[in-house]
Amino acid sequence: MQATEVSEELARRVVDAAARALDVTLSPAEAMIQASAREGVDYQANLAMGLGKRLGRAPREVAALLAGHLHLDGLTEPPEIAGPGFLNFVLNRTWLEHRVAAIDDDPRLGVATTANPRRIALDYSSPNVAKEMHVGHLRSTVIGDALARLLRFAGHEVLPHNHLGDWGTPFGMLIEHLLDEGREDGRIEDLNAFYQAARRKFDADEAFAARARERVVLLQGGDAATLVTWRRLVDESTRHFNEVYALLGITLADADIHGESFYNPYLGALVADLEAAGLTEPSDGAVCVFPTGFHNREGDRLPLIVRKRDGGYGYAATDLATLRYWTAERGATDLLYVVGTPQAQHFAMVFAVCRDAGWLTTQRAGHVGFGSVLGADGKTMRTRAGGTVKLADLLTEAVAHAASVVAERSELSAEAQREVARAVGIGAVKYADLSGDRERDYVFAWDRMLAREGNTSVYLQYANARIRSLLARAGEPEPGAPVVLDDPAERALALALLRFGEAVHSATTSCSPHKLCAYLYETAVVFSRFYERCPVLTAPTDRLRASRLRLAALTSRTLVLGLSLLGIDAPARL
Ligand code: ARG
């Protein structure tokens, strides 16, 4: 099928009409088409007001001219002109019936792939070695993975990379501590406790601190024995991270790990090239770059430190090398970094330096920031003992909570119940993270995220399971059965199903999964209204029964596909 979205199709026709009626050339965006919130109106075009101003004509007159020159070919009824000059469109019933049937025949449910596929380096998750992943990393992991799925579905090539914090001065003390403990071959069960013990020794024991500093020099110098111990720490941490990824159903693999250490061999040349380009300035023994346009409150220029006084390199130099690697060596056309909002300025400065150095030219780079996860008290989430909350513990708890919700009324086997509890519990944590605007903080609250009503994954999973059980009773719908939209509730559902592509598209292009969540929730609500008003199994005619079954089945497929793009499972039975 032709998988253009309705808004695009309308925009194209409005642009054509503008050319014919007014001799102006507009881009599709300038047609200003949007889904309408007005009762009885499906879409509206808001261009006549601005166009009237530009052409010095009355907006309503412009709207009437546009309406008179539109070639609608049965897509909508002739538009009405409302208020100051809105063009209000109502989709033609027959057209809608055919389009919904065509979407139902399409495995992609009418969602077009991009005409302009890009190669997108996507930095996400990126936890720190020798520390447990905490809820802050949850957001990067969950949002990043949803974006990876959405971008791939759109037809882009995604190059995921996990920028592990696996290098730098703390490794001196961590390696010394590991050697002292003599457990080179054993497991480290509690990474946080291990890290804290190393830090305590470092602060209290001057001899240990001196050894730790020497160890950093050995590590950076590539000493073989030191690297072996360092590797043990990285592998041990990766094992913990992989446990969390498996529990969460995250698509990152070991091959995607490109930690800070990976870029170490590139740093010398990087600084030399910046120096040769005349971009560096010495500052207090360090080498700095001052990208234009970055100042502190006092008006002083802000530096990006590319080589520290002691000759070592830090976070900023590594990020410059990272960007250069993904563009120059891996051919990325786009770079996206899913990292907390506090690092916004860091990335803005990295991008600026790379532009000045000529490493970022036609490529697009963007920081996909996000807010914090807060506890019930509105402060950064902590355990009762005041420590940071470990992600693995939190997820185990989520599944346990979900198990108690699911077990109440389920006639499933114990094994199936476990699987469902996992889908519900993990889904709830992920959905809570994805369903709000990512730039905002959110409060982590079990009862809210596991609620069966409201914009939660549990609500969507139940809605889907109810449809699956209806289909199990009725039998799958006949593939070719005509879609009949007699009742307003049938029409409303058809319209919602038709908008899946628009929702997926806007969530993808704005890196905002919450837009897809909002769409799925609305669609499930519209379905439940349909289901109340329009009996399916006992529909008055066979024709209506078949059509309603098709609408129900398509709703289920829409929810399942939509949730899967967010990385959330939708079990057929709950
Ligand atoms: N490891 C860092 C942290 O936990 C995040 C790294 C993000 N990615 C990057 N390229 N800087 O804060």
Automatic annotation (TrEMBL):
<dbReference type="InterPro" id="IPR001412">
    <property type="entry name" value="aa-tRNA-synth_I_CS"/>
</dbReference>
<comment type="similarity">
    <text>Belongs to the class-I aminoacyl-tRNA synthetase family.</text>
</comment>
<keyword id="KW-0436">Ligase</keyword>
<dbReference type="Pfam" id="PF05746">
    <property type="entry name" value="DALR_1"/>
</dbReference>
<feature type="short sequence motif" description="'HIGH' region">
    <location>
        <begin position="127"/>
        <end position="137"/>
    </location>
</feature>
<dbReference type="Pfam" id="PF00750">
    <property type="entry name" value="tRNA-synt_1d"/>
</dbReference>
<dbReference type="InterPro" id="IPR005148">
    <property type="entry name" value="Arg-tRNA-synth_N"/>
</dbReference>
<keyword id="KW-0963">Cytoplasm</keyword>
<feature type="domain" description="Arginyl tRNA synthetase N-terminal">
    <location>
        <begin position="8"/>
        <end position="91"/>
    </location>
</feature>
<keyword id="KW-0030">Aminoacyl-tRNA synthetase</keyword>
<keyword id="KW-0067">ATP-binding</keyword>
<comment type="subunit">
    <text>Monomer.</text>
</comment>
<dbReference type="GO" id="GO:0004814">
    <property type="term" value="F:arginine-tRNA ligase activity"/>
</dbReference>
<dbReference type="InterPro" id="IPR008909">
    <property type="entry name" value="DALR_anticod-bd"/>
</dbReference>
<dbReference type="InterPro" id="IPR009080">
    <property type="entry name" value="tRNAsynth_Ia_anticodon-bd"/>
</dbReference>
<keyword id="KW-0547">Nucleotide-binding</keyword>
<dbReference type="InterPro" id="IPR014729">
    <property type="entry name" value="Rossmann-like_a/b/a_fold"/>
</dbReference>
<feature type="domain" description="DALR anticodon binding">
    <location>
        <begin position="460"/>
        <end position="574"/>
    </location>
</feature>
<dbReference type="InterPro" id="IPR001278">
    <property type="entry name" value="Arg-tRNA-ligase"/>
</dbReference>
<dbReference type="Pfam" id="PF03485">
    <property type="entry name" value="Arg_tRNA_synt_N"/>
</dbReference>
<protein>
    <recommendedName>
        <fullName>Arginine--tRNA ligase</fullName>
        <ecNumber>6.1.1.19</ecNumber>
    </recommendedName>
</protein>
<dbReference type="InterPro" id="IPR035684">
    <property type="entry name" value="ArgRS_core"/>
</dbReference>
<dbReference type="InterPro" id="IPR036695">
    <property type="entry name" value="Arg-tRNA-synth_N_sf"/>
</dbReference>
<keyword id="KW-0648">Protein biosynthesis</keyword>
